Each structure stands twice: as C-alpha cells, then as structure tokens.
Amino acid sequence: MVRVLVADDERLITAGIRTVLESGEGIEVVATAADGSAAVREAVRHRPDVALLDITMPVLDGLGALTELRRQAPSVRAVMLTSFGTEPNVLRALRDGAAGFVLKHCAPDELIRAVRAAHDGDAYLSPEVTRMVLGMVTPAAGRRAEATTRLTALSPREIEIAELVAEGLSNAEIGRRVHMSEPTIKTYMSRVLTKLGCTNRVEVALLVRDAR
C-alpha cells in the first residue's frame, strides 16, 4: 500500500486528488493539510511514503515544506503540485530534492503514475513541466563545463538514456524508444544515477540540460 499525504489550501482540489488517488489500486491517502506547516506536522505524525505538496500554500509554502520534510522526515518523497507556466521556483524545488512535478490539470492516471514512481524511488516530471524547466535554464559557462565533464563518465548507451530522461520520458517510454525492457532501463538508470552522483532522474535531466 502506497501511503500518501495531500497538502493543498483548496479543499475541493484536495478532495479531488484524494478521489483520484484512491481509485488507483494500492494507494491510500492517510492525511491531508491546508498549509505547509500542517503538512510537515502530518508527515512527521503519519510517515507517508509520498507527500503531494502544492507550491503556493499559506503559513509555509510548498518549497518551505519541502525543506522541512527533508530535515524532519527525510524518508518521505515529495512531489510538487503546480499550475502550469510561471512559477520561478520550480527549478529551485527540483534542485532541493523534489521527487517530481505534476500539473494540477493533469490526467488522473498521470497523477497516479507520479505517486507510484516516487514510491518506487524514481521521480516523475510531467513532459510539459520538463519543457518549461529546461526552457527556464540558461546554463552558465561554468555549469556547462562541469556538466559536460560529469557526463563523460557515462557510456554511449547511458548517455542516450540520460538524454531521453531529459525529454521527460518514463522508464517504460524509454524502453519502447530504445527497444529494451523496462527492468533493463531501470538497471541503466541506477548506473546513470550512481555515475553522475544524482539522487533522482530530475537531477539527471537538469544536468543534461546544463551540458547543452
């Protein structure tokens, strides 16, 4: 059972997310919160596997909640909820260890996939968010040089996998693209993460973007 905390200051959205998630097999919403501070308290109390955090919440916003979760409940995997398009802090959240980003208007099955990916130790980034984030980033010369150097540790196949991660593809989608099984792609991803010193696929995507 995947245990989930949902934090959003709009009750209707919270209720809708609960309904969507609990329609998925093996997912249970164990707590909800209307602000970031309450989200941290509930996470410490219930120890969910995954926390869905709205970026814009009162008292303590989603970014602050993410920081506190990493300090007080580091086992909880945080997936950020956002409305599309303008948040300047998306990149900061990804660099601060968010397990992914999901748009509030995403399809129900995408939300379920994101939660399951986070639970499995993976990360999920909506393709639209991937494009938005990568479009926001203009690598400085120093970052580009560092990223290029780090990527030289990868084999040609691992570089190909990393490039597809940067496009926002899931392991299953990458497998279909390169004609490999999903378990094989997971093995490659584990190698990529280790060689690059990244904690999740979001960091891999940003590193690939820095190197371009």
TrEMBL record:
Record-linked Pfam families: GerE, Response_reg
The organism's place on the tree of life at top rank: Bacteria
GO molecular function, one term: DNA binding
SMART domains listed in its UniProt record: HTH_LUXR, REC
GO biological process: phosphorelay signal transduction system; regulation of DNA-templated transcription
HTH luxR-type domain segment(s): 147-212
Keyword Plastid included in the entry's annotation: no
Keywords linked to the UniProt accession: DNA-binding, Phosphoprotein, Transcription, Transcription regulation
Residues where 4-aspartylphosphate is found: 54
PROSITE patterns listed in its UniProt record: HTH_LUXR_1 (PS00622), HTH_LUXR_2 (PS50043), RESPONSE_REGULATORY (PS50110)
Domain spans labelled Response regulatory: 3-119
Gene3D superfamilies in UniProt: 3.40.50.2300
Bilayer-spanning residue ranges: none
Protein name: DNA-binding NarL/FixJ family response regulator
Species: Actinophytocola algeriensis
Lineage: Bacteria, Bacillati, Actinomycetota, Actinomycetes, Pseudonocardiales
